[in-house]
């Protein structure tokens, strides 16, 4: 009797800490016959290496999906719950149903399969590293687009994080439509209720 191999999905997020933009999550199931070399935590890779690996992950994996939770969901639910929602959406978007999920961090979203949280999983587990890379490259691409739509905040450079440049722009310009109003630096900016 042939037994199908366990389909393990790696899940990670990008963008929990920024002051602007959605939070992204990715889910990846490796193809057993198509290994991917060079996987690491996305934060430890250069932007060029992340882009190259993201292309490999998309073409060599058995299944992958990137999903998000938007700014309104972050402000309504809180960032943790919005992150778990994005993770669940990523798994639900897979073309193949996994039998087990390995999730970076210490919390798991509600999933229809067994799930295990792994602290520093993006560093230690290749399939979670792959999800980390897809989530980060997708979110970074969006923030570059948002920089053109909302100039002045430096989103292409800071990716929405609270850098000195971004905080100064918040005080000067006030928040824009993609700022997270529930985050303290946005809520306390001089024009917090301008929109």
Walkthrough of the structure:
The chain has a domain at about 10-140: Ribonuclease H-like superfamily/Ribonuclease H (Nucleotidyltransferase, domain 5), CATH 3.30.420.10. It has a 5-stranded mixed sheet with strand order 3-2-1-4-5, sandwiched between helices. It has helices at about 45-60, 70-75, 80-90, 120-125, 125-150, 155-160, 165-175, 185; strands at about 10-15, 25-30, 65-70, 100-105, 115-120. It is an alpha/beta fold and about 200 residues long. Helix 1 packs across helix 5 (about 125-150) and helix 2 crosses helix 3.
Q: Write down the secondary-structure element order.
A: EEHEHHEEHHHHH
Major sheet: 5 strands, mixed
What is the rounded distance between the termini?
A: 63 Å
CATH topology of the domain at 8-140: Nucleotidyltransferase, domain 5
- Structural shape: globular
Radius of gyration: 17 Å
With strands numbered from the N-terminus, the spatial order across the biggest sheet is 3-2-1-4-5
Q: Beta-strand level of the residues, as a percent range? A: 15-25%
Which CATH class of the domain at 8-140? Answer: Alpha Beta
- Low-confidence segments, given as residue ranges, are none
Helix % is: 40-55%
Strand tally is 5
Number of helices: 8
Q: Which CATH-level-2 architecture of the domain at 8-140?
A: 2-Layer Sandwich
